[in-house]
């Protein structure tokens, strides 16, 4: 799809559809009669994501005038616009409209809004039908989307971010038979050569030499070999500080639970257990193009958690890369086991700031539902920086506590610590486990178990993987 900045005045725009945002509470002052009639008749009220289409609008070159509901004007912001643009885009796409221009109101003609509109359209364009063979799907596609307002740089940034997020969504949606750890590593290698990033893949032998016993313990129940993916971005001019951002993403391509096997109901959802890893890959894709001034390393430990005959057992004790021993009391608490070795490795690579993203616990879904990701940190100023980036990008994240008291739940009879802490505060004890391996390095853990995928589609987003964290990670790097 072509993405453009429209410079002509509204009346001169020649699209199949010209989209304007209309708010609750009536038409704006000086609105055209046709728009007033839509409001007066009650056909359009301005409710969020509501869509009304007028054909052959008077005084415009566009074939259709589309009113898209922006909700209450006092609650409108760029995050709302992202959704509205997506909803309008999806609605028009389903009607086989081929070219769409969204015109921002004078008061919203800024880069922030222009980027959000472009993001909304590209995210709305994404479908989860990659493996459908029905050729009908190709009939519905939009050739070009333009935004009126903002700069070319904003339009480009929006396009890069949304394309990266869609890349992540496609990866996370991929079925677990096709997207194995090795295949994920190949995809990372392809990405690195296309977008010019450093890339290193550690295979099982190398990880054994290094002593990544926690990661390898999870991998040993599967016939699919594991990998540790490392992608590196280095700014062209030497940065003024020594800061080095490490992004670590959980890459479990399928989580059966292992010997502590999961129930059959909804187990297919565990295809998304590599969503954190996919988000790191997507973020690195955008970072390679947007070139922030801080070096960024992306690290993805990737395994399949299976109950094969060589699988680890509840009660096994493994030695992690850090040297600490862990008693594996539940093989389904595997995410934290692969993350600790990846986070130790990230420190060895010189990362001074660490962020991990992981579909880590069902407990975070109980606590926050599907709208917020859980955020945990050992460093409040660093977390505040990330939460500000998340807010800018419209990704909802909510801080949990991480007090010392929670450590008690992880005390083991036989090893340095155990990998589960019981039902109370399950998302927090999981984060507490990881915290034990980051030493004093500023670190943030994002539990995206409830937000990595949508069970029901939204008017602006098809169901399946969401690509959460991609935009926040890129914004964090860019705002350094
Ligand atoms: N991948 C799951 C967490 C998950 C649950 C993600 C639901 C998405 C939706 C993780 O590996 C897991 O199994 N966690 C266990 C931990 C428990 C054994 C301490 C859980 O949350 O039940
Ligand atoms: Mn699990
Ligand atoms: Zn898992």
Comma- or semicolon-separated keywords:
480 residues, alpha/beta, Leucine Aminopeptidase, subunit E, domain 1, Aminopeptidase, 2 domains, nine-stranded mixed β-sheet, 13 helices, elongated, binds ligand BES, binds manganese (II) ion, binds zinc ion
Q: How is this structure best described in words?
A:
- With 480 residues, the protein is of the alpha/beta class.
- It has 2 domains: 2-148, Leucine Aminopeptidase, subunit E, domain 1 (3-Layer(aba) Sandwich); 161-478, Aminopeptidase (3-Layer(aba) Sandwich), CATH 3.40.630.10.
- Helices cover 33% and strands 20% of the residues.
- The model has no long low-confidence stretch (mean pLDDT 97).
- Manganese (II) ion is lined by residues 255, 257, 332, 334.
CATH architecture of the largest domain: 3-Layer(aba) Sandwich
| Oligomeric nature of the chains | single chain
Q: What is the alpha-carbon Rg in Å?
A: 24 Å
Report the strand count. 20
Low-confidence stretches: none
Structural class: alpha/beta
Q: What form results from the Cα inertia axes?
A: elongated
Give the DSSP E fraction (strand runs of 2 or more residues): 15-25%
Q: How many structural domains? A: 2
In round numbers, the mean pLDDT is 97
- Alpha-carbon distance between the two ends: 31 Å
| CATH superfamily (homologous) name of the largest domain | Zn peptidases
Largest pleated sheet: 9 strands, mixed
Find the CATH topology of the largest domain. Answer: Aminopeptidase
Number of helices: 13
List the helices and strands and how they pair.
Elements: E1 2-6, E2 17-22, H1 33-40, E3 51-55, E4 64-69, H2 78-94, E5 99-103, H3 111-125, E6 144-148, H4 152-173, H5 181-195, E7 198-202, H6 204-210, H7 213-219, E8 227-233, E9 245-249, E10 251-255, H8 275-290, E11 296-305, E12 316-319, E13 325-328, H9 335-348, E14 353-358, H10 362-368, E15 373-377, H11 380-392, E16 397-399, E17 417-418, H12 426-435, E18 443-447, E19 453-454, E20 464-465, H13 470-478
Parallel strand pairs: 1-6, 2-4, 2-5, 5-6, 9-11, 9-14, 10-11, 13-17, 14-18, 15-16
Antiparallel strand pairs: 3-4, 7-8, 8-11, 12-13, 15-18, 19-20
Helix pairs in contact: 2-3, 3-4, 4-8, 5-8, 7-9, 8-13, 9-12, 11-13
Bound molecules: ligand BES, manganese (II) ion (MN) and zinc ion.
Manganese (II) ion is lined by residues 255, 257, 332, 334.
């Amino acid at each position: 799809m072509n993405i453009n900045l429209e410079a002509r005045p509204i009346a001169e725009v020649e699209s199949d559809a010209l989209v304007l945002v209309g708010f609750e509470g009536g038409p704006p002052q000086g609105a055209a009669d046709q728009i007033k009639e839509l409001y007066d008749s009650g056909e359009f009220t301005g409710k969020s994501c509501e869509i009304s289409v007028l054909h052959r609008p008077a005084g415009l070159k566009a074939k259709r005038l589309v009113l898209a509901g922006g909700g209450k004007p006092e609650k409108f912001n760029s995050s709302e616009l992202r959704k509205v643009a997506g909803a309008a885009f999806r609605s028009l796409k389903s009607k086989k409209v081929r070219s769409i221009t969204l015109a921002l109101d004078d008061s919203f003609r800024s880069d922030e809004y222009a980027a959000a509109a472009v993001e909304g359209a590209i995210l709305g364009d994404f479908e989860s039908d990659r493996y459908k063979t029905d050729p009908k799907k190709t009939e519905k596609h939009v050739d070009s989307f333009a935004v009126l307002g903002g700069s070319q740089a904003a339009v480009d940034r929006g396009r890069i971010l949304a394309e990266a997020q869609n890349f992540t969504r496609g990866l996370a949606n991929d079925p677990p038979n096709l997207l194995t750890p090795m295949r994920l590593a190949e995809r990372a290698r392809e990405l690195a050569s296309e977008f010019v990033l450093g890339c290193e893949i550690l295979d099982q032998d190398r990880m054994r030499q290094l002593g990544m016993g926690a990661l390898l313990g999870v991998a040993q129940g599967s016939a699919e070999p594991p990998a540790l993916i490392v992608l590196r971005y280095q700014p062209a001019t030497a940065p003024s500080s020594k800061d080095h951002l490490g992004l670590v993403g959980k890459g479990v391509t399928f989580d059966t639970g292992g010997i502590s096997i999961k129930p059959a109901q909804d187990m297919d959802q565990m295809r998304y257990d590599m969503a954190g890893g996919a988000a790191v890959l997507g973020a690195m894709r955008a970072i390679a193009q947007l070139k922030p001034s801080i070096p960024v390393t992306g690290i993805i430990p990737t395994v399949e958690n299976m109950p094969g005959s060589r699988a680890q057992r509840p009660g096994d004790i493994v030695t992690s890369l850090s040297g600490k021993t862990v008693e594996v009391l539940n093989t389904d608490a595997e995410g934290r086991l692969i993350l600790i070795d990846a986070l130790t490795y990230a420190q060895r690579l010189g990362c001074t700031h660490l962020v991990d993203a992981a579909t880590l616990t069902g407990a975070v879904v109980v606590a926050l539902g599907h709208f917020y990701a859980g955020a945990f940190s050992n460093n409040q100023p660093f977390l505040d920086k990330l939460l500000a980036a998340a807010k800018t990008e419209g990704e909802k994240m909510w801080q949990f506590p991480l007090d010392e008291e929670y450590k008690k739940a992880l005390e083991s009879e036989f090893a340095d610590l155990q990998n589960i802490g019981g039902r109370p505060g399950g998302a927090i004890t999981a984060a507490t486990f990881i915290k034990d391996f980051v030493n004093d390095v500023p670190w943030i853990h994002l539990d995206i178990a409830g937000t990595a995928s949508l069970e029901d589609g939204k008017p602006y987003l098809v169901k399946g993987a969401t690509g959460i964290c991609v935009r926040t990670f890129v914004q964090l790097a860019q705002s350094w």
